[in-house]
Design a protein that fits this description.
Blueprint lengths: L1 H15 L10 E5 L4 E5 L1
Antiparallel strand pairs: 1-2
Family: Belongs to the heparin-binding growth factors family.
Subcellular location: Secreted; Cytoplasm; Cytoplasm, Cell cortex; Cytoplasm, Cytosol
Keywords: Angiogenesis, Cytoplasm, Developmental protein, Differentiation, Growth factor, Heparin-binding, Mitogen, Nucleus, Secreted
């Protein structure tokens, strides 16, 4: 499932254009594909 989370995270970062600084902070992101919340550490 780690691969799926990485793929989803990549898609979300491209969609929202988050600055690199946000990658280091814990984030709770919504996956529009599966409708699941993913916590990025």
């Amino acid at each position: 499932m780690a691969e799926g989370e990485i793929t989803t995270f990549t898609a979300l970062t491209e969609k929202f254009n988050l600055p690199p600084g946000n990658y280091k902070k814990p984030k709770l992101l919504y996956c529009s594909n599966g409708g699941h919340f993913l916590r990025i550490l």
